[in-house]
Design brief:
This protein starts with a helix and ends with a helix. It is mainly alpha-helical. The chain contains 16 helices and three strands.
Amino acid sequence: MNERILKEFKEYLCREYRKYGTICSYYIRLRKFLKWLDKPVEDLTKDDLLRWRSYINQKFAQNGNISRVVAVNVFLRFIGKHEEWKIPVPPPKRTNKTPLNREQLDKFLEASEDDYLHHLIALLEIDGLLRPSEITEIKISNIDFDTQRLFLEDTKTGDNYIIISPRLQQAIESYFKFQRPEPLEKYKDYLLIIPSGRKLAGHKFSVKAGIIRDITKRIAIKADIKRKVTPYVIKPSSITRKFEERANPRVIQRMARHKNIKTTLIYDLTDENSVREYFQQQTKIDTNNLSPKDKARLWLDKFISGEIDSESFKKGIDTIKEIQEKQTNDIDYIQ
């Protein structure tokens, strides 16, 4: 039952989508939906869709249901029912995974230093903020040390690039010089290659094989971190640490390649002690002794960092202008 429509749907996915993972995910989700439906697609009704949504809401986690609903919506578009039967996609639910603290992240990086490959993976996660699927696809031809750019193709956020930190550049050069195995001809342009003595030696790393996850886990064990550590723990931990270092949120947003600043701010876990420390620092700044130019620069820094909104920034600048004009008039009057 429904074998023909499933085959046609897979062909449709191959035409419309480039990423193998996306094609497989939508196809598998749709196959499971049709198994639940247990009747020919020709007999599908809107009530069936409502019952299915109720079923997955009760059985599965909200975030997992996003891909299930999207897959069925893609299928509805394929059969021409998308406009009238489209299912609302559930909003993502934030998962409160506790990030590694500064000491743990430092220990993680230090534990990777005795292996060129492990150190490179650690820095691609910490400095590059890359996902496993992005790490495995890094190409040598996309690395430009002159401009400090590592170009990324066909990622979750489209074609993009990251800025290569000096220590990440050193790790790439060291791995390439001392540890990178000889690749098969078709994989010569890929940075990460499976070493000899292992299955698929000479092939590029595959995200499906879980190599990046396994290396991350091994580094964490070596660092004696007593909790489960995955690449999806390292990335938010690194972002959170950058907030603690008072980095500009817009800079962090660019590093993480988030389209929306709200996504970046999710990782800002500022606590009460940080707020008290901030106020103590502010009281040390005597704005009365600052020149109008320095005051304007201070307000601009506050605006860029998100401490004040655009309206407060404008009022502050207007006030500085008024004071400056008054001082100028007073000087003219004295002269």
